[in-house]
Each structure stands twice: as structure tokens, then as C-alpha cells.
């Protein structure tokens, strides 16, 4: 005998339970096993490195499994994994048809370190049919890139902005299977939440809705575990009950003691140190943790490993990979940060910054040994990332080139820059080049700078900056020490040509 339609009240309750972050799932008894960054390539069997990992403190890359077949993945599942602190990358892992079958409980990707601008990348996965990460609710930093997956469906049925709120506007989803050719059928009875524009339901596949909290008045934007109960405000990724010990992951830090077990807290107790932005550790544990430079993120086809060991330092209640501004590593003890007598010099190599991940390489740098080029066309929170990572640069030995960086409206993120030496020049003539930046409106806030900008060798070059009025460029004559220029160096027609600039005679 067939089932009739559900009564309205029952349907509503099931609706909320279906897509609340944990519903009424019983809390699993997991023993936390923390794994470092994992790179899986060449063979499907290498996935077994992930057995029993509950958290990856670092990145997870699954790539270049050229001979993989669908049956090779049968029986492979890692339900213990709930959190990745950096990014998740999948690239040319042949035979894999569902990410969710591998990681059915992955809930949080923090994005502490990004792959270019992205915390979640699915690229050229030729046999992938669905992502299926039905428990994934939070990507804290970075955007999503899902591209060139010819068989991939259920991409348009996910609201990625709900998962990666800080990455909003930076998601890149292109060249997957056309939506019209996909079933994209969500679970029946309209139990899945609607998209913001109410054009379709939100789901990962035909069995799982996208998880969206039913309750809207939870404190501090906390999630909920059924239609009427909020998780603890320190929870992230959902929970199994109302206590701070019921969280799937922690918004700030996880603290363990023998009396209460694991619980989430806003900060660590005074005798412990915050580690990786997620847990509290003892001083000795911090000192015993070392890593090597991670492999090159720009060449996926070649695995490289750095030979530089990085030692962590317990400092002011944080277990830090790098000493903070104003401090340097003690020559006699790599685990100690000592205060500089004057300014702390930190010399970094010149490079091209074309994504926010590259900008992180300049955190704390005061001098660039070489030239600095910035070409950033997109990404989330670009200005914030540049300010946080490049605001201490005082000197560039070579040239500074800023080109086709559409998010930039000013150069104030280089607020400490005082000297461009021009020891290397672009086009044999130029030490400061600002080219084709469509939204750039000013150079620096000169009134709040402590000193003039000195260009010791070379000229300036400004072309095709359509919102940068010539008067803003002319300010360099007053606030910078540089040689004069002519119309070949600074175009009188292609700078500020799309805004109402004041005419100067």
C-alpha cells in the first residue's frame, strides 16, 4: 500500500531536521588523530594514508592518479575526517565519481593557507559525477574553484556563498557538465531549502540536501542541531547538542582537560598556546612540532619538497610559525623570538603576486631583494589580504609594477614603502609602473604617510588607469622624489578618461 502525503506539521519538522547541520545524529566516539599535510598521487591505494585522520592540520591534495578505475575506490571511505585547516585540492584523480563517498563527514575547511585564492579546488576530474560533501557547512577563508569537470553535476544546486561567506564574489565555476544535461534532482517532498532567488532547491545529490540552519535567532550566528535548538556559540560545522563539548569543530580553539574532555573555547587558558588557529597545546608540544617547506603550489605535475625546517615558537599564548613584527628568531634557539634592538629587518626575494596566497609570502617583510610585480584580477578580501601581508615593506631594490589588478582602488596597502632603488628596471627605464588598473583611484594617502617616497633610479610609467585622474599622478611631484616625466611615460589621455577629473591648465 502506497504512502499518502505527509501531514504539514510532520513535513515541517522533517524539513528542518533534514538540513539542520546535524539533525538528531548521535555523537560519535572519535579519538582525535591529527595529521599533517597529505599529498596523495599516482595510486588509489595511497589514500590509505588518511586512515583514522580526524583533522588535517595543513592541506589535502589528491591528484595525478592516471590509472585509477571506479572499482578501485570501492570500500574506500574516511568518515573520521571532519576538518582541514588549509585547502582541499582534487586534480586528475581518474575513476573517482564522488568526493562525498570518500569524506562523508568533512564539515570544515579553514583556508589558513590557500591554493592561489582558493580553499576548495576541483579541476579536471574527468570521471567525477558529484561532489557530495553533504556535511560541509563552513569554508572560513578563500573561495571555491570548480572547473573542467565534464561529467560533474549538482554544482549549481549548491549555494557556495552560504558555505564560503568570505569568498563571496570570488568563486570560479566553469566548464562542468551543462545543468540542462544533469538530473540535478533533489530529495522528494520539497524537503531541501530553496536557493536565495527561490529558483531551485539546494542539494548535494538525490539523497542529501544542503545543510542550512532552520533557526535564525541563534547567538553570534551559531548554527543549530534541530529546528528549535541552537548550538553553542563556539561551535563550527554543526553540533550534536547544546554544550561546547558537543561541537563538530571549534570556531576558535579546542581545549582538552581530563575532567570535561574536549570543549570549544574563545581562547586558550593562560598556561597553554593557541596552535594552527584551532587547538590549545602545551609549551613542549609546540616546540616539538616542526614542518618543512610545502611543495610548490604552482606546478602540480611535479612534487617538490623544501629542505628548510620550520620550528614553532611559543610566544604570548600562541604557538607561532613566524615571529611577530618587532621580533626575530634567536640565533641560539630557533624556538625563541627576541625583540629587535631597532627595526627588525626581514629580506624577501622579489616575485609576482597574482593571488592572495602569494601575498602571504611577504608577511613581515621589510625589504624586497629584487622587483615586485602585482597582478591580481580577482579573489575575495583582496585589499584586506594585501594590507595584512605587505604593509611592512619599506624598500624595493628593483622596480615596482602594478598591472591589471582590478580590485585595487589605491596603493595604501604598501603604506610603509619609502624607497624604490631601481637597481633593476622594467623596459630598461622604469622603476614604478602602474598599468591598466581599471578601478585605481589614488596612489597613497599622502597626508598620513610619515615620509616621502624616494625613487633613486628610473622613471615612472602610468597608462590605461581609467579612474586615476592625472592630478593624482601629479601629486608625485610634491610627495615623492623622482625624475620628471613626459607624455610617453605618463599618458595624458588614458589615465582618468572614464571619470570626471578636474581640468588643470
TrEMBL record:
Record field: catalytic activity: L-tyrosyl-[protein] + ATP = O-phospho-L-tyrosyl-[protein] + ADP + H(+)
One Pfam family in the UniProt entry: Recep_L_domain
SUPFAM superfamilies documented for this protein: Growth factor receptor domain, L domain-like
UniProt subcellular location: Membrane
Source domain of life: Eukaryota
E.C. no: 2.7.10.1
Gene Ontology molecular-function annotations: ATP binding; transmembrane receptor protein tyrosine kinase activity
InterPro entries for the chain: Furin-like_Cys-rich_dom (IPR006211), Furin_repeat (IPR006212), Growth_fac_rcpt_cys_sf (IPR009030), Rcpt_L-dom (IPR000494), Rcpt_L-dom_sf (IPR036941)
Record's bilayer topology term: Single-pass type I membrane protein
Keywords in alphabetical order: ATP-binding, Glycoprotein, Kinase, Membrane, Nucleotide-binding, Phosphoprotein, Receptor, Signal, Transferase, Transmembrane, Transmembrane helix, Tyrosine-protein kinase
One Gene Ontology CC term in the entry: membrane
Major localization class: membrane
Metal-binding is among the record's keywords: no
Residue ranges that the Swiss-Prot or TrEMBL entry lists as coiled coil: none
Residues of the signal peptide: 1-26
Sequence ranges assigned to domain Receptor L-domain in this UniProt record: 52-163, 364-474
Domain Furin-like cysteine-rich positions: 180-348
UniProt entry tagged with the keyword ATP-binding: yes
Gene3D superfamilies in alphabetical order: Hormone Receptor, Insulin-like Growth Factor Receptor 1, Chain A, domain 2, Receptor L-domain
Protein's name in the database: receptor protein-tyrosine kinase
Amino acid at each position: 500500500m502506497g504512502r499518502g502525503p505527509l501531514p504539514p506539521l510532520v513535513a515541517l519538522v522533517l524539513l528542518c531536521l533534514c538540513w539542520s547541520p546535524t539533525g538528531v545524529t548521535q555523537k560519535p566516539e572519535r579519538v582525535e588523530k591529527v595529521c599533517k599535510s597529505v599529498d596523495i598521487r599516482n595510486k588509489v591505494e595511497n589514500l590509505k594514508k588518511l586512515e583514522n585522520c580526524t583533522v588535517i592540520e595543513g592541506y589535502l591534495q589528491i591528484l595525478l592518479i592516471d590509472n585509477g578505475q571506479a572499482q578501485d575506490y570501492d570500500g574506500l571511505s574516511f568518515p573520521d575526517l571532519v576538518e582541514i585547516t588549509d585547502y582541499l585540492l582534487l586534480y586528475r584523480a581518474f575513476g573517482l565519481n564522488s568526493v562525498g563517498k570518500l569524506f562523508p563527514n568533512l564539515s570544515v575547511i579553514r583556508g589558513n593557507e590557500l591554493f592561489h585564492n582558493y580553499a576548495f579546488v576541483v579541476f579536471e576530474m574527468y570521471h567525477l559525477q558529484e561532489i557530495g560533501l553533504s556535511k560541509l557547512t563552513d569554508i572560513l577563508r578563500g573561495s571555491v574553484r570548480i572547473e573542467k569537470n565534464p561529467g560533474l553535476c549538482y554544482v549549481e544546486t549548491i549555494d557556495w556563498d552560504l558555505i564560503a561567506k568570505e569568498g563571496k564574489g570570488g568563486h570560479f565555476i566553469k566548464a562542468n557538465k551543462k545543468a540542462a544535461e544533469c538530473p540535478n534532482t533533489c530529495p522528494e517532498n520539497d524537503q531541501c531549502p530553496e536557493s536565495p532567488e527561490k529558483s531551485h532547491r539546494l542539494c548535494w545529490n538525490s539523497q542529501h540536501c544542503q545543510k542550512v540552519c532552520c533557526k535564525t535567532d541563534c547567538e553570534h550566528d551559531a548554527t543549530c542541531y534541530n529546528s528549535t535548538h541552537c548550538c553553542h556559540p563556539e561551535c563550527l560545522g554543526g553540533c550534536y547538542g547544546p554544550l561546547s563539548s558537543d561541537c563538530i569543530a571549534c570556531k576558535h580553539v579546542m581545549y582538552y582537560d581530563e575532567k570535561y574532555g574536549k570543549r570549544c573555547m574563545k581562547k586558550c587558558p593562560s598556561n597553554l598556546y593557541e596552535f594552527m588557529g584551532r587547538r590549545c597545546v602545551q609549551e613542549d608540544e609546540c616546540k616539538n612540532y616542526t614542518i618543512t617547506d610545502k611543495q610548490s603550489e604552482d606546478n602540480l605535475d611535479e612534487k617538490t619538497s623544501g629542505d628548510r625546517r620550520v620550528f614553532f615558537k611559543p610566544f604570548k599564548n600562541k604557538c607561532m610559525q613566524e615571529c611577530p613584527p618587532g621580533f626575530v628568531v634567536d640565533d641560539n634557539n630557533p624556538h625563541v623570538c627576541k625583540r629587535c634592538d631597532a627595526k627588525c629587518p626581514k629580506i624577501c626575494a622579489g616575485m609576482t603576486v597574482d593571488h592572495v596566497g602569494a601575498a602571504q609570502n611577504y608577511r613581515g617583510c621589510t625589504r624586497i631583494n629584487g622587483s615586485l610585480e602585482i597582478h591580481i584580477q580577482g579573489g575575495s578580501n583582496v585589499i584586506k589580504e594585501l594590507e595584512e601581508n605587505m604593509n611592512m615593506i619599506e624598500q624595493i631594490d628593483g622596480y615596482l609594477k602594478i598591472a591589471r589588478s582590478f580590485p585595487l582602488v589605491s596603493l595604501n596597502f604598501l603604506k610603509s614603502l619609502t624607497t624604490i632603488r631601481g637597481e633593476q628596471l622594467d623596459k630598461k627605464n622604469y622603476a614604478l609602473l602602474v598599468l591598466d588598473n581599471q578601478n585605481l583611484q589614488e596612489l597613497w594617502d599622502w597626508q598620513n604617510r610619515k615620509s616621502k617616497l624616494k625613487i633613486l633610479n628610473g622613471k615612472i610609467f602610468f597608462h590605461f588607469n581609467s579612474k586615476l585622474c592625472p592630478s593624482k599622478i601629479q601629486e608625485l611631484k610634491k610627495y615623492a622624489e623622482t625624475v620628471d616625466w613626459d607624455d610617453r611615460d605618463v599618458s595624458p589621455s588614458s589615465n582618468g578618461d572614464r571619470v570626471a577629473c578636474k581640468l588643470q591648465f
